[in-house]
Design brief:
Proton glutamate symport protein; mainly alpha; 21 helices; 0% strand; globular
Length: 441
């Protein structure tokens, strides 16, 4: 999908949301009849969950192996990405439980009764049922029966098997990458139905609750933006200064043009080539940039982790079926794992959200329709946070490996060594195509 057409989709979703709000306020009875439009769109998203989870996990496990081959840089980068994802989840959980988005809506009491019924059915055999539930009948049935945990197990086994095969598994990984492109192309086609789904879901919600729905949606959007800002300034900023003695605001100002590019496209992928070029110009060695930036785009998704956290809490509270702390942690860990390798893909966030709910609380999946209308509004903050996190990660990994020129960075950030904005930028290297010097780092 071209960038221009994506802008049209964004505008269409905005207009659809506005129309849904208007219908919901003017004719609540008619608006409630439009709910099947949102439900149908969520059904299309659910249709793609299995293939997306399988492909992204298999390729994610393979890329970990590629990163590990570069030695100290790969190990430090992956360790840092894991730590920051955990911190982002913790921040999102803390703010989400504090703000409690969706409080007071209670859109569907039926969902709560369904959850209670499932709990009664479980009884003493819950553990056995869970273990049996994650084991598919066959390897292929994991992709066809809609059981996300089974798909996750099959994907992990496949990924580790391909690791053990070494070079002989490379053609299979390449084949999975082609299948992933096909799956994401289908998902991009489905996303063109987002305006219709957003219209139906928003109209039904507003028709059922009136201005309470608008107030709750405003709370989650504002809370999400503020949480991302707090994470960047209060977590990434001090860490960058303590480790590399680099001022975060100076670094963000240096990357100002890239932030504007991300705002116009709602995807941090659009700024990937420029981030690579600017990090090298800043003073991080090419080998470190070559592995940290591309790998970070799949594994260092701080904004996505916060988004999944707050969206999940919002849906659970709004539908009258709040999650326990244990359910929150297990569900969100699954979502972060399942989202690896899907950065910058239109609709991947919604698919990951739906997949996590389908695996842990199927009774909440229909609540994804509540997020459809505001997902595009939240994507900018999500992309900007992911981008800032990867820029900081590159400087930190360069510092830890002794491959960061702090003196040059000071000159660049002060404006004495400006970046040549007119120089051509090459396509970004893949995560496993590194400089020969990388093996010596």
């Amino acid at each position: 999908m071209s960038r221009d057409r994506t802008r049209y989709l964004y505008a269409a979703v905005v207009l659809a949301v506005a129309a849904g709000v208007a219908v919901g306020l003017a004719a609540p009875g008619v608006a409630l009849e439009l709910k099947p439009l949102g439900t149908a769109f969520v059904g299309l998203i659910k249709m793609m969950i299995g293939p997306i989870v399988f492909c992204t996990i298999v390729l994610g496990v393979g890329s970990v192996t590629g990163a590990a081959r570069v030695g100290r840089v790969g190990g430090l980068a992956l360790g840092y990405f894991l730590a920051m994802s955990t911190v982002a989840l913790a921040v999102g959980l803390a703010v989400g439980n504090l703000v409690d988005p969706g409080q007071g809506l209670h859109l569907t009491e039926e969902l709560r009764r369904a959850a209670e019924t499932e709990a009664v059915k479980g009884g003493e055999s819950d553990t056995v049922a869970f273990l049996l539930g994650i084991i598919p009948v066959t390897l292929m049935s994991a992709l066809t029966e809609g059981q996300v945990l089974q798909t996750l197990l099959a994907a992990l086994l496949t990924g580790f098997a391909l690791q053990a095969m070494g070079e002989r598994g490379a053609p299979i990984l390449a084949g999975v990458a082609h299948v992933q492109r096909l799956v994401f192309r289908i998902l991009a086609m489905i996303m063109w139905a987002a305006p219709v789904g957003a219209f139906g879901a928003m109209a039904a919600v507003v028709g059922a609750t009136g201005v309470d729905a608008l107030r709750s949606l405003a709370v989650i959007m504002l809370g999400f933006y503020l949480t991302c800002l707090v994470f960047v300034l209060a977590v990434l900023g001090p860490l960058l200064w303590l480790v590399a003695r680099v001022n975060l605001l100076s670094l963000l100002r240096y990357l100002g043009r890239e932030f504007l590019l991300i705002l116009s496209t709602s995807s941090s992928e659009s700024a990937l080539p420029r981030l690579i070029a600017k990090m090298e110009h800043l003073g991080v060695s090419r080998p470190v940039v070559g592995i940290t930036v591309p790998t970070g785009y799949s594994f260092n998704l701080d904004g996505t982790a916060i988004y999944l956290t707050m969206a999940t809490l919002f849906i659970a509270t709004a539908t009258g079926a709040p999650l326990s702390l244990g359910e929150q942690v297990s569900l969100l860990v699954f979502m972060v794992i399942a989202s690896k390798g899907a950065a910058g893909v239109t609709g991947a966030g919604l698919a990951t959200l739906a997949g996590g709910l389908q695996a842990h609380r199927p009774d909440l999946v229909d609540g994804v329709g509540l997020i459809v209308g505001i997902d595009r509004f939240m994507s900018e903050a999500r992309a900007l946070t992911n981008f800032a996190g990867n820029a900081v990660a590159t400087v930190l990994v360069g510092t830890w490996t002794g491959e960061f020129d702090r003196q040059r960075a000071a000159e660049v950030l002060s404006g004495r060594l400006p970046f040549d904005e007119t120089s051509p930028l090459d396509d970004p290297p893949p995560a496993d195509r590194t400089d020969p010097a990388m093996s010596q780092v």
